[in-house]
């Protein structure tokens, strides 16, 4: 539209035409433009997601547990309400979440287990203080000679992981096995195949307390997990000869129903999906705010802000997953991957896993994708690139990190087993902080990373908010990078382009592992 210049405006226009400097009101000045060729600034997901976005979800999980039996365990009311909370928040953020039900085996003790020495001297061990029954242990009352199985003189070792470890093992004996390297299920299965009547899997050096673990599926023989001190003393006595033990367990098992919550971004390639997940369930003993309310809440906070990345930032589809029944042996993530058709499973570029991001005496653990420590499982190619992304981010902020081994203790396990690259973070569970870690991260050496691990006291006060805040930033930063490109992890895609760009997923579905 043409403008007529009259009066004062005409005077100003003439002064400008003839080069005389005149101060103009801001109203008349053109808007500032970026330099020619300058790239438009990208949103920073780590800056968008703040601790204030995470904390309300933690409080909600605490309230849900408080009014539903004190926990959010799979198969119980607290978990079902947690699922409703997550789906409600996702809908508010613009997602169309799917609640995928599945069935899984459950296990429960009917009466207290017993572990005792009967010869050459007698001693009874206290349940919880000295030993625990591993979840999915079989039932039985066994009194028999005990025999060590490839127990190392020091360190972790591979005790009971290989069939050759049981060479010369007398059938009917009780196997004394040290925790480490392979899963509890593998150790128990090897022992039973060798003719063991029961299995005692004691903790490894440096780990305090009894083994609080799971075999994932029902075993045919009793399996208990004492402390390292008890186990080492039994091994010493057995090597002298004549040691007999009594192992009694009484449990029942069956099947239960739980569910996963899955939500995809609307944008991004359907043939190169970044799956980022955290388990939503707690153990029956407590509300599980650090384990794993911190991971679940961080995931919700990131999901609410990820749309800010826009089409350019979401070149790959991001799939958010809240896994059910992790504390029952990674049942949710395992059932999910098992239910996917092979073609859809191959579209998964990688998995990020968040499990315990705010341990009160924790470290900043990044999964050891390049296997530099030599401990745990060697993860699929590309996992090392994910680790490096986390390390570079925290190095840029001058924050220390430590390598956390892939030991099968969380929901990345089923992905790694299927050759899918994985990465993520944790801050420590029942393990003990070293002096070097205390110097780097603060906190108290010689104390557990989380003294309330799997306990009633895992409440809001059990969370290190400062550590959680920085870790949420790290997760958001790495996820933003991978949402845009996975070239460093998988070359850009696991399979070729998908014809159907709308892509409607066809999901179906009906304690520690080592």
**Quick check: average pLDDT?**
89
Report the C-alpha radius of gyration, rounded. Answer: 28 Å
Q: How many DSSP E strands?
A: 14
Question: Which strand-content bin applies to the residues?
Answer: 15-25%
Overall 3D shape: globular
Second-tier CATH architecture of the largest domain: 3-Layer(aba) Sandwich
Chain oligomer state: single chain
CATH topology of the largest domain: Aminopeptidase
Q: Roughly how much helix do the residues carry, as a percent range?
A: 25-40%
* N→C terminal distance: 75 Å
The main pleated sheet reads as:
14 strands, mixed
What class would the helix/strand composition place it in? alpha/beta
Q: Which spans of ≥5 residues are poorly predicted at pLDDT below 50?
A: 1-34, 494-514
Number of helices: 15
CATH class of the largest domain: Alpha Beta
Order of helices and strands: HHHHEEEEEHEEHEEHHEHHEEHEHEHHH
CATH superfamily of the largest domain: Zn peptidases
Keywords: Carboxypeptidase, Hydrolase, Protease, Signal
GO molecular function: carboxypeptidase activity; metalloexopeptidase activity
GO biological process, one term: proteolysis
Protein name: Zn-dependent M28 family amino/carboxypeptidase
Topology:
Layout: H1 7-17, H2 45-48, H3 51-66, H4 77-92, E1 98-119, E2 123-125, E3 131-133, E4 140-148, E5 174-178, H5 184-193, E6 198-202, E7 223-226, H6 228-240, E8 244-264, E9 269-279, H7 289-305, H8 310-313, E10 316-323, H9 331-339, H10 342-345, E11 348-354, E12 365-367, H11 383-396, E13 402-404, H12 413-417, E14 422-426, H13 435-441, H14 465-484, H15 487-490
Parallel strand pairs: 4-5, 5-6, 6-7, 9-10, 9-11, 11-14, 12-13
Antiparallel strand pairs: 1-2, 1-8, 3-7, 4-8, 8-10, 12-14
Helix pairs in contact: 3-4, 3-7, 11-14
């Amino acid at each position: 539209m043409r403008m007529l210049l009259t009066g004062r405006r005409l005077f100003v226009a003439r002064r400008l035409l003839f080069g005389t400097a005149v101060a103009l009101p801001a109203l008349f000045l053109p808007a500032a433009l970026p330099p020619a060729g300058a790239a438009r600034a990208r949103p920073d997901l780590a800056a968008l997601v703040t601790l204030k976005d995470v904390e309300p979800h933690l409080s909600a999980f605490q309230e849900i547990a408080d009014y539903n039996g004190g926990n959010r365990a799979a198969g119980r009311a607290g978990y079902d309400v947690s699922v409703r909370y997550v789906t409600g928040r996702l809908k508010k953020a613009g997602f169309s979440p799917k609640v995928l039900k599945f069935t899984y085996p459950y296990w429960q003790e009917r009466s207290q287990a017993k572990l005792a020495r009967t010869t050459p001297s007698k001693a009874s061990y206290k349940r919880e203080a000295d030993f625990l029954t591993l979840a999915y242990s079989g039932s039985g009352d066994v009194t028999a000679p005990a025999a060590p199985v490839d127990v190392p003189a020091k360190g972790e070792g591979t005790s009971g992981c290989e069939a050759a470890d049981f060479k010369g093992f007398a059938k009917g004996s009780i196997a004394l096995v040290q925790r480490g390297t392979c899963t509890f299920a593998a150790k128990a299965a090897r022992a039973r195949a060798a003719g063991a009547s029961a299995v005692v899997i004691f903790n490894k050096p440096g780990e305090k307390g009894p083994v609080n673990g799971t075999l994932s599926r029902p075993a045919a023989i009793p399996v208990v997990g004492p402390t390292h001190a008890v186990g080492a003393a039994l091994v010493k006595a057995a090597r002298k000869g004549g040691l007999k033990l009594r192992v009694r367990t009484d449990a029942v098992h069956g099947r239960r129903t739980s569910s996963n919550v899955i939500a995809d971004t609307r944008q991004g390639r359907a043939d190169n999906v970044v799956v980022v997940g955290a388990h939503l369930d707690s153990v029956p003993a407590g509300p599980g705010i650090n384990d794993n309310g911190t991971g679940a809440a961080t995931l919700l906070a990131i999901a609410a802000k990820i749309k800010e990345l826009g089409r350019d930032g979401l070149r790959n589809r991001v799939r958010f997953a809240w896994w059910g029944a992790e504390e029952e042996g990674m049942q949710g993530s395992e059932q999910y991957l098992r239910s996917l058709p092979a073609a859809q499973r191959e579209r998964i570029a990688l998995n990020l896993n968040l499990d315990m991001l705010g341990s009160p005496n924790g470290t900043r653990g990044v999964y050891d994708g390049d296997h530099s420590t030599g401990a745990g499982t060697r993860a699929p190619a590309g996992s090392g690139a994910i680790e490096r992304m986390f390390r570079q981010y925290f190095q840029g902020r001058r924050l220390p990190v430590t390598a956390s081994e892939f030991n099968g203790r969380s929901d990345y396990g089923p992905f790694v087993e299927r050759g899918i690259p994985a990465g993520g973070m944790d801050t420590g569970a029942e393990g003990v902080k070293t002096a070097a870690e205390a110097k780097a991260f603060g906190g108290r050496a010689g104390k557990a990373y989380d003294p309330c691990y799997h306990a009633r006291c895992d409440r809001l006060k059990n969370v290190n908010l400062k550590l959680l805040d920085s870790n949420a930033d790290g997760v958001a930063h790495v996820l933003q990078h991978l949402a845009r490109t996975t070239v460093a992890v998988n070359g850009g895609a696991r399979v070729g382009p998908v014809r159907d760009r709308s892509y409607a997923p066809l999901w179906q579905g009906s304690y520690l592992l080592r």
